[in-house]
## 1
Amino acid sequence: MRNLIIQQARVLDPNSRTDQIANVYIQDGTIVAIGGQSTTLDNFHAAEKVNASGLWLMPGAIDLAAWLREPGLDHKATLASETRAAAASGVTTLCYQPDPATSIDNSAAVNLIRKINQGLQLANVEVIGNMTFKLEGKRLCNIGGLRRVGCVGVTNAWQPFENLNVMRRAMEYASTHDLTVFMYPLEHGLAAGGVMHEGEVSTRLGLPAIPAAAETVAVAQIIALMELTGSRVHFCRLSAAGSVRLIRQAKRDGLAVTADVAAHQLYLTERNVLDFDPLCHVRPPLRAQADRDALLQGLSDGTIDAICSDHQPHELDAKLAPFQQTEPGIASLETLVPLTLRLAEEGVLPLLQALRKITFNPARIIGSQAGCIAIGAPADLVLLKPDVLWDFTLEKMLSQGKNTPFAGWSFNGQVQRTLLAGHTVYQAQEAN
């Protein structure tokens, strides 16, 4: 592998709280030195020197939730299209989410995903396996076998368990193998048939609704089972103020709990559904302003550890129907970094804290050594030009899915180059 030096970059490392102008030395895909403006290494022969003056150097983003579709739903997206979009948007690691059509309940499924991705080498793809066969919530998968083949966690995604005893046994099984359980908190009975948040907007529109209690009740149940089983649980896609309060208390009680929020929940609310916009049909649903405020507070005080994209690309027809008949989800991989940077720009979070939510924290949740700029860490890095205002448009999207409500938004800061293990996987074209 080629050695290279990234020179004169503003190095932003959320873990060490580093914010300085420095050179970064990369050898065989690994960071070997970080030095000041005049620092050199004896006997270090760089095949390339990157002039990064005026640019930010940050760890590549780690997305805890990307529904990559292939194999099984290739008409919606492929690993090739989505990892290409990831590289261009500063995301170097994606966590593959199983669903009934792309079930991960055996080692062959994991190996197939890896084989496809190895031929691409545009982003790391970590796999989260099934807790139950075909996600049917009845028979437990061979969780130990999934652990041995390299799954970073297990989940039943949005599918219900047959009963709480099955959930308990699955959590116990995962715990014996020191494997994180990724729980999607939803009480399906309370949510049955709903398509948006239960509140004044759903009443006005006459749409079947999902109360916030459908999430908070499930969070409370899972926390009770954590205390019973000693499991390590990551809560996925929080949306309700009550959930934030419960997880904040669980952390105070010393439970091994982490949580994430989808980036769109930090900007959109139920009011964005007022014109029946199917692009705002998501799961969990966009909630009230008070819930959004609680999510932002949870990010600020550390209750919520990570921000993810919850990337769900769809074919065009999936969103061309009356609201309640459309499929939920946003193609949001390419807006993860821009929306996170906007939190810092708007003063919601300090810059390093915002970056930590998409780099170091998710890395530790999945047991990765990436997500930081440190000696010995993999050189999964992003060079960003901070003073560029650019428009996010459907024409510029590389994801196969174009289902986003953020088309037309403008963002500050544009990815110039993305490195994966020191190898350039994306480089912006020079403007004419």
Note: The longest helix spans residues 213-229.
## 2
Amino acid sequence: MNNPIKVALCGLGTVGSAVFRLINDKSELFKRRFGAEIKIVAVSARDKSKERDICLNDVAWFDDGIKMARESDANVVVELVGGSEGVALEVCRAALSTGKDIVTANKALLAVHGFDLAKQADEGSRSIGYEAAVAGGIPLIKALREGLVCNEVQSLYGILNGTSNFILTEMRNKGLDFETVLKDAQMLGYAEADPEFDINGVDAGHKLALLTALAFETKPDFSSMSVEGISNISELDIRFADELGYRIKLLGIARRGPEGTQQSVRPCMIPKELPMANVDGVFNAIAFQGDDTGPVFLEGRGAGAGPTASAVIADLSDLARGLRLPTFGVPIKELKLGNPASEDTAVGRFYVRLMVLDRPGVFADVAAILREQDVSMEAILQRTRAPGAPVPVVMTTHEVNQLAIKKAIDQFSSLDTVLEEPRMIKIENLGL
């Protein structure tokens, strides 16, 4: 039997309590499978008096998580506080400085401070496990760090936020607007009271930064990423997408090419027949393209107490087996700068929707702008209107430089016949 894994657990919210229960309820299973006992020796949370469905009698309580990380007799600290700064960061720094390993579900922390923490871990021969930080119960980190270790990953894409995916799914299935579905998601517990990080793409961006770093052997680089959320997607756009043979998904995409690494999070239209188009509700999915494996597609629940706690245990099991891998797949000295490439240089197809006054000369003005920017239309749709109502005009383009279509959008906005901000959504065939 290997030496026991003694855990100091920082944070006893939904996930923290689930981790506590799993470790206690399945201790015998872990002994059989990992060859070592996993036990919680210390905990820390904001309110000791809070009612919790767990028994804390046999563990040390610390009001201060940072003190716990320094002074407890644990050999691994599980950080489940969240946030990129403050307690979460200091707990991790304190744990590493006193020779403890870290397991965390905190994607924001690692997206912002991952390189510095990885350097500290590397220098102290410690480990940072973060399977729970990306897509909950889907073993994405293991897949990249171990399963695809012999592959050069050239590109990856995925649905990385369950809240946004649920909202887009409900808008499509029920014909409801964004605000209505968001309220429903909050009532069901799929969206936070403050859902900004989910709906504006930041949560997905943090996760993408970690996956890109691991896949491409680069420093995490969230700050240079192009991020767009779903709050501007209308039920009208979803209907037009369906008519054109597409579904709208919030995708995180990373590609590397001769000009550098492109990372983006934004709503995309993807063909209905693709597996990614049929990942609905709160589910997540990710696809990689390995040079030896070819395409790899993984799908599962991306959040929730059970899947996230399970991912935390997976990292603890590695420690129980004596497995400590570099945080981002290679020693810290081998990590490269990502050399971020502007998306404006990329070529692709686009969906454009204008709400216009139905009067002579409108199409001539639109056509003149497209001609000026060298944008070629693939298809155009126009719907009838009620008297005096604006008319939706939908266009899809052939492949065009992204900067050119952005310039055309700016010019459309200046027309007095265009009544709303034009909508532009990239069409992704996901031919990795």
Note: The CA atoms of residues 218 and 335 lie 5 Å apart.
